[in-house]
Structures are given as structure tokens and as C-alpha cells.
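Thread: Modeling a multi-component assembly for a lab meeting

Hi all, long-time lurker, first post. My supervisor asked me to bring a structural picture of a complex we are working on to next week's group meeting, and I have zero experience with this. I have the sequence lines for every component (569 residues in total). Could someone generate the structure of the whole assembly? Inputs are pasted exactly as I received them:
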Amino acid sequence: MIEASRLAKRFGTVHAVKDVSFKVAKGEVVGFLGPNGAGKTTTIRMVTGYLQPTEGEAFVNGQSVLDAPMETRRNIGYLPENNPLYEELRVREYFGFRAALKGVPRKMRRKRISEVAGMTETGDVLEKIIGSCSKGYRQRIGLADALLADPPLLILDEPTVGLDPAQIVRTRDLIKSLAAQHTVILSTHILPEVEAICSRALIIHHGALLYDGRVEDLGRNLSAGETLVCRVMGEPAAVEGCLSKIPGVERVEKLDETDGRSWFRLLVPKGDSVREAIFWSLAEARLPLLEMSTSRVSLEEAFLSLTTDEDEPKGGEKEVFA
Amino acid sequence: MKGTIAVARKELLSYFFAPMAYIVIAAFLLMNGFIFSVIMTALSQPGASMASPLGLFFGGSLFFWLFVIVTVPAITMKLGAEERKTGTMETLLTAPVSDFGVVAGKYLAAMGLYLACWVPTLLYVWVLTRFSQVDWGPVVGGYLGVLLLGAFFIAIGLFTSLAARNQLVAAITAFAILILLLCVSILGFMVTDPLWKGILEYVDLWSIVQNFSKGLVDSRSIVYLLSGTGLFLALSYEAIEAGRFSR
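Re: Modeling a multi-component assembly
Sure thing. I ran the full set together rather than chain by chain. Output:
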């Protein structure tokens, strides 16, 4: 459906996007993740044809965005970053203009506008002037515009920015329901959004693609080891000494301590043998093991470790664990 | 083509929903009406010249130029600059409409508003037919001059607006280009070299419009005005294309 082939964009001396390639198949819902300023919007603008790439090419439905601009644009419903709208028009006039621009036949326009207004819950502001609509409505007006010509491909750049929590949930549900019939690229810097909606994630940072794969695998691929959390009864120092002597345990970290019980975090290789060793070692030292669990690497943690530079302090690690 | 009509329609809606169109038209008619009455008063004095009142009205006086030079940038300044500033240019240029369609649509809308300013002046012609014998040559020539000069100037204004990110910059740049074009008329008096004099006479807007308002329609002038329009429409198209390479 979409193919980006070695896309690069330079603005003067700034390399906003460097050599980004990816493919999105029909029906996929892809989260396009990255910190602010990572190059998400620039990449999206090259795919939609708003910007010309310095190098590389983008294809929609097998057609080059540069060679067949009209055909590729007809296939895309696009909600740009910051959702720009004409403040002075009424919502219905705006939809009418956009529908005409997108080639929705004159006879169909009225029907299509009310359909889309129903889907996005914008029906009750149709006669209002856009400039007087609330942020939540404006965002949904932008989304409705993307849907007007019923394109097979939706590209949404930060669709939930500025919405209140209830609206965010409703917008996500709408996008999820659209995902059944559309191919969706959802650009965001909000991780739960990707977890909630997308099956695949692309992570971009400093203009380069860092990760391309399933959302579930994002945490798993991060390291060969696993993190265990154990609750043990007994003198913390003794427990720590015992745990650190076990072969295979790479790191022991005391997290908390209450009423003679303490929490430890261990970095261990994958598999059950080391868990067995932990159990027996503690039993021999007569330190009862009360609890042992795997702590799943959260998406936030995975994201941070992918996008944090080695020389930068890894901020946020503590919060992630808390 | 459909895209062009959609863009033109939307631009006209924007003009008439924002107070812009009304302010421009009202100010234009106020100035024009005042000048018309001044011309009529002057010509009805005993011993006044036998000049055609509409000849003076269209291009015969400095005021005609003031109207056009002030009105045109006011009409065109928002066409591109506002869309760039608010970001709506992105939704426009990623819709299935060609860049040429965008230029043509915006141009047609601006021409529409410009002509809407002039339509009420037909009343002056009607008033004159009630009280005197009207020589139709200057009337037709005058309106043709207004149309062609407007076509040229609106194209200039559209170009500066598509090239700028700020409406004020767009308006001032357009204003400067229009003034420069008029200054050519003054240069014509100062140059003695016959070749240069010939060239400057060819592009002397002042005398071109004055000839139109006398009913003298010269095809060379029409070619000049139309090719100037074409040049700036092409530059407008290039300004949109150039935008695809930068932020």
C-alpha cells in the first residue's frame, strides 16, 4: 500500500530525515513513533507529497508520489499536524469545499458530509463557524475531512493532541473502528496510543528509523535477558549476598524493605534454570522466597532505551520502574 | 478544472465572510464616488474643457492609480500568505488538485472581487447617459483597460502572496512592484536614447491606460498586459513548487 524507499530530506544543512525505508501492507495499522522533532512529520509530508524528498522516493499503491501526484493523493486521507482549518468558514461549507476538491460527486456530497459528521460526532456543529469551535470539535473536523472521500489509506499526524481524556478514548475507538476497512498510519509520541491501536510500530529518532516490527516484540527484543522481581524474608544483606553468588545472576538491586521482607530486582538470562537455582540457594540459606515474578519491559522503557542517546543520562528510568 | 472551481468558490466565500471584501469595496466606492463627483463638478463649470468625464475617470487622473495600487494588494495579500501561516496550505496541496489549479482558482477569485469593486461604477455611466450624450469608445476602452490592468496587477499580488509567509510582507512587496512599474512612465521622459525610449514607451502603463480611456485600444498594449499576467501567474506556480522543497 505504502512504500518509502530510502527517503531523505535536508533543509539547508539540517538532515531532518536520513535514509528511511519501510513498507506498509494493505489493512495494517502502523504507529509512527518518535520524540518531538524526530522527523515523523517530515517523513509523512514526503509520503503525502507535500514535500519533495531530497533523496529517495515514496510509493502509494505502487505509484510514485512524484510521478502520479493526483492518483496517490486521491488514495490518502490526511490529517496534518496541528490540524489547520479555515477559521472563517462554517463547518458545512468547509466540508463542502473539501468534498468538491477531493472530487466527491456533487449529488453525493450532502449525504457523504452527514455520514462523516455522524462518524466523527460533528453533526451538531455543522452550521457553526470553525473559528468558534472547541479544540475537540476542531480535531474531529480535521478527522472528518480526512474521511470525506472515503480513501483506502489514512495518515493521521498526532490526531489526539489537545483532546480531553474522554475525547481521546472516543477518537481512539473511532480510529480502531476505521482500521477494519482502512490502512492507517498514526503518528504520535504517546506510547499507550500505539499499544491501544496499532499492530506494528515504526520508531524514528534523529531522522533515522530505529525499529520496525510488531508492538508486542518491542519490549522483548530489547535485551537477551529478563528482569525478575523477588520478595524474600530475612536480613536484606544476607539475601543480597546469597543472590549475587548465584551463577547467571548479572545484577542484584534492592528495591524496598519492610518488616524483614525485602524486594530485589535481578537481571538474569532467559529460561527456567536460573529461577530454580535462585529457589534452592535461598532455601539452603533458610531465607524463604515469598514471591518471584517476571517484570515485563514496558513500552516506555523500550522506547526510551531506543531513543535515548548513550551519552545522555537515561532519564525516566526510575519512573518507569516505580 | 473542478479543483479550480472549488478553490475559487472557497476563496470568494472567505472574502465575503470575512469583512475584507466589504471593506475593500466600500473604501473603493467611497474614493471613486468622491472623485467622480469632483470630475463632474469641475467639468460643469463654465469654460471647462470638453474632456470626456469617463476619460478622466479611467486613468485620466492620479486617483485612478491610487485606487488600483491600494486595492489590488489588499485583495491579494491573504491568498497565499495566510494559508502558509495557518498551515492550511498543507491540506490544500495534499488534496487531489494540481498546483496550477490552486493558482488559477485563487486568481479567479481575486479577479472576481476586483471586478466586483468596479461593477457599481456602471451606475456612473448610467447617470451620464441620463444627462448627456455618452461617447461609448472611452467607456468600453476604459473598462477594457481596467480589466487588463487588473489582470496584470492581481497576478503580481498573487505571486507576492504565494511567495511570502506574512500578509503584510506580501502586500508591501506587491505595492512596491506596482509603484516601480508606474515609475517606468517617469523614466520615459528622462531617457533620450531612442531605443530605450521606444522600450519604455511600450511598457508605460500610464499612457497605455490613458489611451484605453480615450477609446484608443492598441493591440501591442493588450499583448504587453496579457504577457505580464502570464509571467506572474507562472511565477506564482513556481512559488508553490518552491514551497515543496522547504519547510
